[in-house]
Structures are given as structure tokens and as C-alpha cells.
Design brief:
2 copies of one chain form a homodimer. Chain A has 3 domains: 210 residues, FAD/NAD(P)-binding domain (3-Layer(bba) Sandwich); 105 residues, FAD/NAD(P)-binding domain (3-Layer(bba) Sandwich); 105 residues, Enolase-like, domain 1. Chain A is 32% helix and 27% strand. The radius of gyration of chain A is 23 Å and the shape is globular. The first copy, chain A, has 13 helices and 27 strands. In chain A, strand 6 and strand 7 form a beta hairpin. At the A-B interface, helix 1, helix 3, strand 3, strand 4 and helix 4 of A face helix 1, helix 3, strand 3, strand 4 and helix 4 of B.
Amino acid sequence: MKEYDLIIIGSGPAGYVAALRAGQLGLKTAVVEKAKIGGMCLNWGCIPSKTLIESAKLFDRTLKASTFGIDGIDPKAVTFNWKKAVDRKNRIVTRLVKGVEFLLKRNGVETISGEALLVGRNNVAVGADEYSAKNVIIATGSRPEIGKCGPIDQSKVVEIDQLFDMSEIPEKFAIYGSGGTACETAVMLRLLGKKVTIVSPQQSLLWFLDSSLSKFISDKFSKSGIKVYAQREITKDGEGGVFSDEDFIECDKLINCADRKAVLPERSGVDIELVDGFFKVDEFMRTSAPSVYAIGDVTGQMTAHAGSAQGACAVNHIAGAKTSFDPLKIPINIYLDPEIAAVGLTEEQIKAKGIEFKKGEFPLSVNSKAITEGATEGFVKVLAESKYGEVLGVHIVAPNATDMIAEAVAIMQLEGTLEDVGAVVHAHPTVSETVLEASFKALDKPLHI
Amino acid sequence: MKEYDLIIIGSGPAGYVAALRAGQLGLKTAVVEKAKIGGMCLNWGCIPSKTLIESAKLFDRTLKASTFGIDGIDPKAVTFNWKKAVDRKNRIVTRLVKGVEFLLKRNGVETISGEALLVGRNNVAVGADEYSAKNVIIATGSRPEIGKCGPIDQSKVVEIDQLFDMSEIPEKFAIYGSGGTACETAVMLRLLGKKVTIVSPQQSLLWFLDSSLSKFISDKFSKSGIKVYAQREITKDGEGGVFSDEDFIECDKLINCADRKAVLPERSGVDIELVDGFFKVDEFMRTSAPSVYAIGDVTGQMTAHAGSAQGACAVNHIAGAKTSFDPLKIPINIYLDPEIAAVGLTEEQIKAKGIEFKKGEFPLSVNSKAITEGATEGFVKVLAESKYGEVLGVHIVAPNATDMIAEAVAIMQLEGTLEDVGAVVHAHPTVSETVLEASFKALDKPLHI
């Protein structure tokens, strides 16, 4: 039986980053992958969606180019070639997958193709082969729950990974879901001029975010013609559509963006504790089974970068270094138009904890860079505890929120206060000045409002 | 004679921010402006240029839209309507100027129109009127040196503020200068398909930046068809152009982007020490004349946000609070394609100081978000001292560098180390991950390369 220091099950952004780190640290490491290196994120999730959203945003922008002084584009003649955009996406995914394969090799990580069965605490079987390892990391990810879309003809249902591989797409979509994928998919399709209806099982879209953000999204979707049925299920099939209670929703396809469930690997001879269907882990990503770690979606942390950070944390622990993983300093990025990003506590969470706090909100509509970009929808909200002013949460709606959040995470990681943010000279003209202004406002002295 | 706590001469981003802060702190404040509220930056500098660059970038992007799956745009039919773009710029400037006027009023700041004469240390004359103030802040800005473009027909020369107000522009430009304005103007005109030649009095464009950035720009300009004559002057006039030594440069207009010189206000009965033509100031922005402060370009700090920060610092000092201004933590943003941003020490400065240092460079070409955007030119370079790993400088070339730099400034302001940056979870997929990777690389453990 071949022996390793570490076997990692799953090669998504949690698993492959753990593998790279393990390779760097000199551990004899193998990664088992049943589908494609890079996992959901790289092959069917984050990267494909961001690539197509980029295309959709440019499509929308070309239609408005005249405002910026660009003549000679007839909006009626401009069309979106889905196939061409998907081909571009495929080229990008292939390039990135090859990149990860190369990195794994260069870091001395072996790749085993197939589905893993965890046998006891130290063995992994793949097909007829069995391998042993001092430690095992489970990084098997998640996927939207199947069959949640209601009692309808299943040929109408499209999984998100299937959508990104269709060679052409129809005109009318229903989307079942309330989270980031549901919203991103809705915005992308709407930018392409499709008819989009969301059936949201939750009361609010993006219900886990600060309510100011979910309210913004609700208003924005309404303005941009995305119909949302909140706190609803799909209850009945229909001709050319589906029903939610009495309401008929016209659609050619129904996209399943139901809440994601952990994809648990098969186990034999080992008990691992679960909480709500996810592996329970401690601060070093150890499961209840000694020598078995879990990282990524399978632990309930549903972002790629949280998985990567957990991967580094787990491998560091295996190698004898204790670095911790703080879920409160993990940014959440949602690629809408404008984008949404957040880190730390929401106002609702702060209130529920009974923390005295200050807040500052600053709109993009008076930010000069946002005005030059013709993209003034959005705001920055900064929350801090009252005594020292330590920043507890930052919530951003802005065209470039997903990059802007990096500053907020850095400030929170370094335990910065509102006064600290006020001392950070923000370049002019930039949209990042709104972070400064929101902090000034929390200190009761905004400049530009 | 009307009496004030504070008179500020000049209403650019240094002066008007100082005025707003003074108003907030309850100082009886007046601001004297000889031209337009908002000064050079708002009326003829940063904002007009960023607005037109935004248009130029979109123009270029529409020409490449097909790559992203957008059909129906004929690049040959797409034209740039300069007049329309300038009209948009004018609307934006008008809106922003009104905004500043409104803010000044709301903060109780009076506005005095006309050219100021500083009389002694506490009086300011404007035309026939004279005003007194406990303190005076000089914020009169700078402008490119006139007459530096050589012995040529002056009707060929266009100042940068004139360019932004022309209702149409010709096809061929020469640009005299080596700094940010010269480069931004060259890139904007080149994106619009114009023929552009730069005559740079300095050996390198952007010579004040880390040499990796100026080298990138030099290569990029060469690839994009911007001809640069380095360490040259314009020596002779010519038919349909100008000469630099033996080289004939075909051009319809020559844009003056010579180094900026301080615009000093008229003074009478007061001596204020100058260094190289700029006011000498201490850490609280005090000049050599008691009760007279100077802020902004007139002190040699040539960015709007440095001026604003100096303005806050000066007013805080006047109001009795000591906050300091650290020129090493002032970002420099240059809006090219891709953008350039930097903060802190360059590698050359670190070497010259004999500091032991680590460095990490990470290219955008392997960053997944940059790949989805189809914008992979650029890199991030992080420099830190060796002992504790404190970050000393960050230098970025990226499509969105001017927003990304905010994180770097925050880290430096909070005296963060490479390990601290490594602990900041950067959202995936974002271009900001390159900051993390460059820091990992400086620590000798990059992940994605």
C-alpha cells in the first residue's frame, strides 16, 4: 500500500491550495479528484460565472456607449453570442486548470483520479487501490440540493454547471434560490436582456448579509425588471412555465440555485461528527476523527477563499505550526451590477450581541470617481464598536466592491479603528474614498456630504 | 475690516477640504478663489482627465467586444465623438463644483472671489477689500511651467486645461513632459487612435516611481505605438511638426505637460521661505511666517489627496490638535491602461538607504480574475524590511490599481508586516489576490506561481 504524509480528497480551491502548501512544506502529498482538477469553483462555479458576467457587463456597457461619446454602435444591432462567450469561458477554464495541474506537479503533489472512500482514519480507497496517510484532509465541497425545485417536469430544470455549458440559451428563465449564485445568475441573464423571475425560499435575497445590502438588491432587482417572489416555493408545473402558489411564472428553463449541501465522501469504519450536514471542525480544521481534517464548503464555509485559508490552516497544523482561521474576517463577494462585498458583523448581528456601536454610511452618488465612471449606485457602510472605534464590519455596494473589500479586510485583520481608517490617505479620485468618508461619518465628521 | 479665524487662499482639493474641516470645527472661515471653486483638480485636472480617460477606455473596449461574445459592432464604424465626451465632462465638472459650493455653504464657509494678496501675516487683500484672520492657509496650487516647450510657434502649444475644452481635436500630437499628466494624456489620445509622440526631458517617464513601473510603461508605450524621445528637448520649429535635435516629430498640436511649478500668491510685508520654488513647511504645514500655513501643490506635494490630508492636518493644528502628515504614506495614482499605483519607498530608495529588504513580485497573467477580465498585463511588487517584515512599499500595475492601492496604504498606515498581509484573506476571484501572492513570494512561499 502506497504511503503518504497527507492525502487530500478533493482538488477545489480548498483542496488544491492545501496540497500546494503541503508540497511547499515537504509533506509527501496526494490529492484525489473524481472529476476535474480545480473542482466546482474553477470548472463550473466562480470562474465560469465571473467570465460570463464580465461579458454580460460589457454587453450592457456597449449599449450605453453613446453617453460616453462613442458613436457608430446601433444598440438594436448589437447581439450577444452566448456560444462565443462560453467558448471564451472554456478556454479560460482550460488554461487555469492546466495552471493548477502544473503547480501541483511542481510542488511534488501526486494526483489520483477517481472517487475516494475514506477507510478508517488513515486509509483512502480509490477504485481497487488503497493508500495510507498520516493525515487526511476532506475537501469534497458542496452542490445545490437536487430536487428542491418542486414537483415539475425535471427536463425544465438546469443545474448551474449545465447552464454554463449550454451552447445556446432560451429567452425566459426562472431561478430557484435566495443566495449569491441565484442573484449573480439573475443579473447576468438580465444584462443579456433575458426575462428573469426569482423564486426565493427565503424572505430576503442574500438574507445573510447586512439588511442594507439585501434591501439595496431587492430595490435594484425591482428597478431592473427582475421579478422576485419572496418566501415562496415552486408548487406546480405549468404549460410554458411553473407555478408558485397562484402565480404563473413564464419560463423556458428553471435554474436550480437551491442552498448548497455538503458533498460528503463515502466513509467506512470511521465516524465523523456532522452539524447540519456539514463536518464539525475545530479552529485548526480537525474533525472529530483524529488525524482527519475537513476544509472548504464541506465545513459550511461557502467561499473559495475561506476554503483556501482553511486549507493553509490545516496544513500548517499538520506541519506543527498553529495558525488560526477567523470566520469573521472572511470577505463575501457577490458579482452583481454593481458588485456587493462585505466582511465582519452585520448591523443586525451587532445589535443582537448588544454591542454599542457607531455607524457611517456614505453614498457613491457624491463620489467623484464613481461619477466619472457613470456608476453612482451604491454605498459603503462602516460599523465599529463605540469605545475604541474598532471596525467590526464593512458592507459595500459599488461597481468595484469585490476589490475594494480587500482594504476593509486588511483593516479588520490589523484591528484598525475608525481613527486609523481616517488616517489612511485615500487617493483622489477613487471610489475607495467612500470608505474614508463612511468612517469619518461614523466619527460624525464626514467631509463630502 | 472683516475678521476671520481663518482665510484660505485657493479652493482646490487642498483648500476646500481645509475649509470644510475648519467649518466643521467652528472656525470662522473664508476661502478666496480667483477662478473656479474646486481649483485645477476639479475643473481642469484630475476630474476632466479621468472622465475623458473613462470614455477613451470604453471606446477601446467596444472595439474588442467581439472577443467577449458581443456581435454586431463594426469596429470600422465606431467613432469617438470628442465634443460629446467633453460635454459629458462639463456636466460632471459643473455637478461637482456645485457640490463643493454647497458643502462650503453648509459648513459656514464664506467664499471671496478674486485674486488674493497676502499683506503681512494676518491680512488678505482682494481687489479693494482687505480682510484679517488669525491664521492664513495658502493653497494656491501649481501649473505646468509655461514656455518650456522650446522655440516654436506658440499657437501650436496647447495647455492641458485647454485640451479638455477643445470642441474637436486633431489627429497628431506631440506631448512635452515626463510625468503623470504627460503619460495619462498620451494613453488617452492613443486609445482614441491618435498619433502620439512624447518628448521627455527626463531619462525615464515617471522617473520618480519604482524602476519596475517606469520600465513597464516604457515597454507598454512602445508596444502600443506611443513613440518616446527620452532625455530630449524640443529644439526647433518645423512645417507640420517640431524638431527634437535631428528628429522631426509630425504633430498638429504640442501639449505642454512640463513639470509643474508652484503658483505663489502675491505677498507684501511678509517673508516666507521657499525651497526650489515651493513653500517650506514643517510637519504641521506651518511656513516660516508665524500664523501662515501652506498646503497642497504649493508645498511640492503634487497630488490632490496629499493636499487634502495636509489641509486637514493644518486645520487640526490651528484648532489645537496635533495630527501629522507622513509623505511616505501618500499613494500615487496614474490612470493609464492598465493603471499604475504606488505607495511608500521604491526599491531604489530602499537600496540607497542601505536597508536590508525582501521583495516579492507577482504577475497578473496567472491571476484568475484578471484572466476573466481579459486584462492580464501588470504585476504587484511588495517591498519589506528584512527583520520584522514591515511593508515599506507597494507598487502596482493593474487595470484597477488605483483602487487596489487603498489596501496597501492601510497596511502601511497600520505598520503591517508581510505576515500580516499573508493573514488577510483576499476574496477569490479578485485581482487583489496578487497582493497576497506578492507578499507570500517575499516570504518565499508563493502559492500560484
